[in-house]
Design a protein that fits this description.
globular, eight-stranded mixed β-sheet, Aminopeptidase, 168 residues, alpha+beta
Length: 168
């Protein structure tokens, strides 16, 4: 999925971007973003296992060189006639600029090419901004998984996961 995406109409001032396979070469920089954005980030082992398993893993960058800025990344698992989005993250300095939408669109195109009829995801119940992005992309609420995620680092509680799907 090495492809150049032109900026979306709402992002006229943004640079051209490229997708690259998320390999171990990108991992230190991806982990910096993961740790900065999430109270419960994925571990290096989570990423390494996903790479070994062969999940669809893409990094969205501003250029094709190793010095480029990472705008975001996603990890998805292909199943039988479906794809499950495991992680989608936009670097903090690039949030609210439409990059999550661009990555979701790219993932939907790839998923259709894999013969998937559905795209699935879970999102924290407290993450209303992400839920709004998913709804705007056509995802529908399917169910709620009670006490699925651990709450923030200063809390011992748990929070629900909102399960959403998109018919491709």
């Amino acid at each position: 999925m090495n492809a150049i995406l032109k900026p979306l109409p709402l992002l006229a001032a943004q640079p051209e971007v490229e997708f690259h396979p998320l390999t171990t070469d990108w991992l230190d920089r991806v982990l910096d973003i993961e740790n900065a954005v999430y109270p419960h980030p994925w571990s290096r082992a989570n990423f390494e296992d996903s790479i070994k398993t062969g999940y669809q893993m893409q990094v969205l960058t501003t250029e094709s060189t190793s010095n480029s800025e990472i705008l975001g990344y996603f990890i998805a698992m292909k199943g039988f006639e479906e794809v499950h989005l495991l992680n989608i993250t936009v670097a903090e300095s690039f949030q609210r600029q439409g990059w999550a939408r661009a990555m979701l669109e790219a993932l939907a195109v790839w998923s259709r090419g894999q013969g998937a009829a559905w795209l699935w995801l879970e999102v924290r119940g407290s993450n209303e901004r992400a839920q709004q992005v998913y709804k705007a992309q056509g995802f529908k609420l399917v169910s709620v998984r009670q006490d699925y995620y651990p709450k923030g680092p200063k809390s011992n509680g748990r929070e629900d996961a909102i399960v959403m799907s998109l018919k491709l």
